[in-house]
């Protein structure tokens, strides 16, 4: 999953030419999602369904 995240960030940087600040913000947020997926034993981005994603968002919201 991390390799796919790296490729996505490279796409944003090289193809979409997002600003460094935007890229940093995306990467920071997606690293949180990736870390949560690892803790939840979610082994692929495809396995991250809407219910699991909502659970993560609720948890992050509760943490402030």
Task: From the structure above, extract its key features.
mainly alpha, 73% helix, 64 residues
Describe the structure.
The structure is a single chain. By secondary structure, this protein is an all-alpha fold. It has helices spanning 2-14, 20-39, 50-63. It contains 3 helices and no strands. It is globular and about 30 Å long.
Question: Layout of helices and strands, plus pairs?
Answer:
Layout: H1 2-14, H2 20-39, H3 50-63
Helix pairs in contact: 1-2
The mean pLDDT is: 95
User: Rough shape?
Assistant: globular
Portion of residues in beta strands equals: under 5%
Q: Total strand count, please?
A: 0
Distance between the termini: 26 Å
SS content category: mainly alpha
- Give me the Rg, rounded: 13 Å
Please give the domain count: 1
Q: In oligomeric terms, what are we looking at?
A: single chain
Runs in which pLDDT lies below 50 for 5 or more consecutive residues are none
The helix/strand series, from N terminus to C terminus, equals HHH
- Give the biggest beta sheet: none
Residues in helix, %:
over 70%
- Number of helical segments? 3
């Amino acid at each position: 999953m991390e390799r796919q995240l790296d490729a996505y960030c490279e796409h944003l940087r090289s193809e979409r030419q997002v600003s460094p600040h935007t890229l940093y913000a995306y990467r920071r947020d997606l690293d949180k999602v990736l870390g949560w997926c690892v803790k939840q034993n979610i082994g692929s981005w495809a396995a991250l369904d809407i219910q699991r994603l909502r659970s993560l968002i609720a948890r992050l919201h509760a943490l402030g």
